[in-house]
Amino acid sequence: MRRIVALILVLQWVACASPKPVLYPNAHLEDVGEKVSQEDIDACLALADAADLESNQAAEAAKHTAGGAAVGTATGAVGGAISGGGAGKGALVGLGVGSVAGFFSWMFGSRKPEPVYVNYVNICLSERGYQIVGWK
């Protein structure tokens, strides 16, 4: 049981990991070092978070869940009709499976930050002397 709980916690941690800016090793980065550059990245991310530039995560989760439910319902209805188990029963099973699959695809899928969020952080870091080569 402990292993299952530990696995779930690790999966949640991985799911919450989001892309971060990758810095070009210019003279400023070499002068300030890894610790200060990470503090600057964290500060710029916090400023962008405070500016509320990200999309509504609850709405994104709902959109993926609803999409999964629609696909699951249609697939289940066809599968139930073909197998002789009944289209209605198949649709109901597909609804449940599709909803869960849609939600988990959102939860564990790659979450790219909004372009305006990325630009905000990039400008913040460039004003501090860094050069950003991308996000990873």
Annotation keywords:
single chain; 136 residues; mainly alpha; 2 domains; two-stranded antiparallel sheet; 2 strands; 5% strand
Structural description of this entry:
The chain folds into two domains: 1-54 and 113-136, no CATH class; 56-100, no CATH class. It has helices spanning 2-16, 27-50, 57-83, 87-108, 115-127, and strands at 21-23, 132-135. The model has no long low-confidence stretch (mean pLDDT 79). It is elongated. Helices cover 74% and strands 5% of the residues. The protein has a two-stranded antiparallel sheet. The chain is mostly helical. It has five helices and two strands.
How is the secondary structure organized here?
Blueprint lengths: L1 H15 L4 E3 L3 H24 L6 H27 L3 H22 L6 H13 L4 E4 L1
Antiparallel strand pairs: 1-2
